[in-house]
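QA checklist item 7 of 12: single-chain prediction sanity check.
[x] sequence parsed
[x] length recorded as 348
[x] structure emitted
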Amino acid sequence: MGIFILRRVGVMILTALCLTFVVFFLTNLYPALEKLAKTQGNQRMSDEAVISYLERHGHLQPLLIKYGQWLGVVPGFVHENPETGAITARCATRGMDPSEAPRFCGLLQGDWGFSTVFKDDVSSIIATRLGLTGKLMFWVLVVMVPSALIIGVLAGMREGSRLDRSLSTFSIASTATPEYVSGVILITLLASSAGWKIFKGTATSAADNATLENFLLPVLTISLYGVGYIARMTRASMTEVMTAQFIRTARLKGVSFRNVVLKHALRNALIAPFTVIMLQFPWLLNGVVIVETLFNYKGFGWVLVAAAGNNDISLLLACSVVAVVVVLVTQLISDIGYVFLNPRIQIS
């Protein structure tokens, strides 16, 4: 198991480097850099002024050099204006003398850059917003996972029954409805003046004080989409297990149907849904972009939209790192958990 984990971690690091390099390349194309210069300076800047700005801030260096500086494995950029003698250093924070700046400053040193939109350190922005999204994801999982497993198990216990058809129809309908559609429907029915107006709070206030009135709608909107998918996978796995030979043997020995389901079928049926549930974490992290924007909940998804809309390169790169790490870590946990749930799997 130890060799397996080390090997997977090595593959994860290599994958993370490749993916972050692709994002770094796309965000450092010249049109994006030109837009950044004009955003920080003047929209009517001449081409010469744009090039001068990019040169002062090290954006015209070779791509691999800039990527190494961003990672923190290459010494930071230092530029001296030949006319004024002013020094610009990548590793110099605000108020620091550029000559006293450290040589290395990047991800490995904990320096994620400075946000041009929020005028703050990217690391503090990511930590704050990711914490808010983590709170949202926690309650989504609390609602989504038990509901989906119960629906899937009930539907798969008796394949073809009226209960199975009803729950399967609900699962398909919920999965087929995108978050922006279900969110608008829930707002119209439960929170607008045209509906019952049961929930009067706003998701923006939930960042400071989450209550049932201001937090349930975004939780339900995300949960509804995931419930159907997990329920369908659980139902298919449960249906397959219920037709297995050991289940028939248990029934012939006189074991009650309840004990057959709880003691024999349930654990075997949860192997496939476990993998699906773990895959929900990266989906939740990216799926909250729509919901957080719709409900104006200022978490990770909202920051990602703001960074993309305002060409905040440092913040976009940090968001990509977080997304890549979440995907890779959940995949590793999924593989390890799958081995423990199914002892028949051998690790070579």
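[x] summary fact logged: The mean pLDDT is 84.
[ ] second reviewer sign-off
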